[in-house]
Amino acid sequence: MSLMMDAAASTGRSGRTRRAERAARRAELSGSGPTREEVAPARFPGARAKFALFGEVLLTGLLVTLAGILVITLPAALAAGIRHLRRFIAAEDSRVGLFWTDVARAVLPGLAVGAGAVVLALILLLDIDVARSGFLPGGAVIEVVGWAGLGALALALLIAAGAWTPEAGWRGALRAVPGLVRADLPGALYVVATAVFVGVVTWALPPLFIPAIGCAALAVVAIPERRRGR
User: Fold this and answer.
1) Is the pLDDT assigned to residue 8 strictly greater than 80?
2) Over the stretch 114-164, which tens digit does the pLDDT of each residue have?
3) Greatest Cα-to-Cα distance within the chain, rounded to the nearest angstrom
4) Is Metal-binding among the key words of this record (predicted)?
5) Beta-carbon neighbour count of residue 173 at 10 Å?
């Protein structure tokens, strides 16, 4: 009887130990708990839970859509969404309230950026439409230039939104765009491809803008990190 009781107690202790180890392992992977000394901490602990990251991308897309519904507020919404995803991936405080705090800081100075982007986009779209009409000589070339201009505009907006901070402001973010593009030309092409993806899926089915813009925010966070991780 004593042997059986000892065996049962040993089994109970073993089960508790395994449960504690599993809990510690989950905390280590998520970034919410300490890591073992022999294991290097994850670079992006918030990205280890793939389904949670997917849900956060969808939430970010919804938040950016709501904050950018006036179109001219879209740069501020993107900047806040990108900062929100950075905090989540780094396993930092990523409450939704912080997103709206960033929107409040970015929106008024960002109105000029948004209005300028809208005007420029309308001019380029008009050029493309006129070029397609056949009334202008060299219409095909003008159309290509128009689409290239839209791609450059989208690239500048996404990179500036990623570079925006409350300290640097929009002026500092816009000034940083050329240097960031020169430093990573392949990454700039990836960002342009992301903008094309958002445009295509939105054209195909407008409600898809919500997840697409969330993916764009994630791309702005992830693309520069691919070089740092090498």
Assistant:
1) no
2) 999 999 999 999 989 888 887 777 778 889 999 999 999 999 999 999 999
3) 100
4) no
5) 24
Question: Is 78:217 a contact under the CB 8 Å cutoff?
Answer: yes
Q: Cα-flanking dihedrals φ and ψ of residue 156, to 5°?
A: -65, -40
Cβ 174 vs Cβ 210: under 8 Å? no
pLDDT digits (tens, 9 = 90+) for 165-211: 999 999 999 999 999 999 999 999 999 999 999 999 999 999 999 99
Rounded to whole angstroms, the Cα distance separating 41 from 38 reads 10
Q: Cβ distance 142 to 131 under 8 Å?
A: yes
Write down the pTM of the prediction: 0.79
Structure tokens at 52: 């949670």
Euclidean distance between CA atoms 107 and 105, whole angstroms? 6
User: Is the Cβ–Cβ distance between 111 and 140 less than 8 Å?
Assistant: no
